[in-house]
Amino acid sequence: MAADRGQGLDTMSVGVLTHARETGGHRTQFRADKWDADQVAWARRRLDIPRRIEPSAKSFRELKLRPFETYLKEDCNLILDAGWQLLMNGLAGSAITKFSSTVGRIGGGISATANAYTFTDMQAATGAANRQWELVSSTPTVGATHITGLIFAATFPTTDGNFAWAEFAVDQGTAGGTGAAVATCLLRGTASPGTKTSAQTWNVTVTIGWT
Prior knowledge:
Elements: E1 26-36, H1 37-47, H2 57-62, E2 69-74, E3 77-79, H3 81-91, E4 105-109, E5 131-135, E6 141-142, E7 150-156, E8 164-171, E9 185-195, E10 200-210
């Protein structure tokens, strides 16, 4: 008797071709903590602060006095071209002026104009009805990780910044005011934390992290 036999084998292999690539960018956060007139008056009495001096965010936190409102917005600004140049020169290149407790301001303004890297200032017109700069409260905090990044903070007292906010910026000015940006403007962003009034004190924090 004859028998026919057959055998077959199919094989398949898979290969993956990948191109390793690393990308990165910056992440930002704008925060405004707000205290009202009653809280300001209470803090002044408790700490025996003269009327000519405004309580700062540090004063409120020392008393464990929480803001009546906190506004928070993520990823809402650009590091401007001049800001990137400042950062790169800090690594290699020309000498730079560093931010410190006496160099650096946060500004708020009324313009909601979309951002552009080429900006060198906020977009609101100069003057107290349109913009306000405040000197940073202390030397900006340099975080230990890429997430914590660089933190700027400034207090806007009852007398300053009383308008509907739509933008903010950080520059290297050395005193508060209502004029144009001074020296290098590091960043500018858009945010709408509300309308500040003479019955409120705001502590504004701008954080830059890296991803």
